[in-house]
Amino acid sequence: MTGESSGPGRRALIIPGGEAHAETSMFNNILVPTDGSDTAEAALEHAIDLASRADAVIHVVYVADVTVARGGPMLDLLTEEGQRATKEAASRVSGAGLSVTRAVVEGKPSRAILEYADEARIDLIVMGTHGRTGLDRLFMGSVAGRVVRLAKVPVLTIRRP
Asked: Which of 135, 145, 161 is nearest to 67 (CA)?
């Protein structure tokens, strides 16, 4: 049973613990975009918790941002970074006994995340509000905002730890 809790100006969805089955679960496929940052890792921890309650598959995706690297060596470096980040995240998910899919895609981050969510039939997106430091933080913040505004599914945003 789920319920809502409200307080002064707040509403929270309460999802009780216990066994859940994929047939009855609200979330079967959870998308976690990652850039390897602490915030993305915190989002992954929340996704693992939710997926373990719902027996859901976690999809870990890294977007090699073509607005930053239009090709060549820079795009290759981003793709390599994406392979590393998704491999580490997938290892944490499988270590928790959950099913995981990982992908590195090229594109504009918010668009690529939303397209992946549509194509993979994602039920929930769990992502950090900010990525790495400096400009990456600014980009991820704007990416999270766009995803929240444009996603067809619920988006759970996680603040920096």
From this structure: 135
User: What single-letter amino acid sits at 64?
Assistant: A
The model's pTM is 0.80
Name the one residue in this structure whose structure tokens are 């603040």: 159
Distance CA 152, CA 159 (A): 21
Rounded to whole angstroms, the maximal C-alpha distance in the chain is 53
pLDDT tens digits, residue range 24-55?
Answer: 568 999 999 999 999 999 999 999 999 999 99
H helix or E strand, kind and range, residue 119 = helix 109-119
Q: Which residue is associated with the tokens 């090709």?
A: 71
Please state at what angle helix 135-150 crosses helix 109-119, rounded to 10 degrees: 40
Contact 123, 39 (CB under 8 A): no
Pair of tokens at residue 8: 């002064």
CA nearest neighbour of 125 among 139, 114, 138, 140:
114
